[in-house]
Amino acid sequence: MKILCVMTGGTIGSAISDNLIDTSKNAEGEIGRLIRSYDVEADIVSPYTILSENLSLSHVLALAACIKKNIRREHVGVLVTHGTDTLQYTAAGLFYLLEGLSIPVVLVSANYVLSDKRSNGVANLSGALEFLKTEHAPGVFIAYKNNVTPDGKYTEGLIKASPVVLYNAERTLAHMAYSDALTSLPPEDVKKIEDPEAKRQFISNKDIFSQVFDEMINEKLSGLFELSDDEIVNAIKKLKRRKTGPLFFHIHPGMYYPTPTPDMGAILIETYHSGTLPMDSEAFRVFLRSAKNYELPVFLAGCREYEDLYASTRDYESEGLHILKKASPLAMYMKLSLCLLFGLDPVIYM
What we know:
Rossmann fold, 2 domains, four-stranded parallel β-sheet, 10 helices
């Protein structure tokens, strides 16, 4: 079996020196050795090397272009090593940019450097490779093992007991504060791999697996971001000239609302958990009127379907607010950014 491995840096490709974590020159050799230990051949490439907190949309575009340029007929899948901080953003971006790819793409990261016994990096890598060995359906996923308690404590028993989970890139949520654990909208997992280092065996739920792939087939978006190399290069150049992008924020009680500007292109708001917004707030109403004056569409992420709605939601339609489908707000942010970058009307394509 042969795969394409794309290395981008992050903790999984880092080492500690003088109590500082930074990307390592030896990462390619270490990752390559681990891949070969699972009887897998890999062509290894690297479009850039960064700590993932420094990620930009240009990096995501360059990564997509690198994958498309280097994929070969003999590759059964793509493995991407990445940092954990912005793992979900890149996965979502690739979910849209590589929609036409016929093989799976799996992103892996590590919560600690590989030499640290607390690290889930080897388990994540093992789970991803096992997935690529047995499943060849298209899509973009994250392979990740949650091996710390909710309060961030490492336990020897938990790292052995918890499975590696394959998450759908469009449904993976932001990290909770102080935690490197991943969570997802249900259906949470595509596959669970129990202790891949020992058993190398899937615990699979075929119904969930089929349902997730069905949800990934979106006829309206089919081929939307299938771009040529020149189009991606031009988009990266455009990003370097651009002064701003879409405004994205989570609503908070009594918050200060930024002043909308025309070059934002659009606004994305993550609502409270029940899909509500402070519609009685005059400051928020002023913000919405200002957005409307600049003809900026306002999208809402986080709205759920209820039989009974809260009174505060009754003005959403009259205010021209656009409720998005159930997906990770981070994924919706990446999709909105791509729509604006490539001149696609987000009201139509979101």
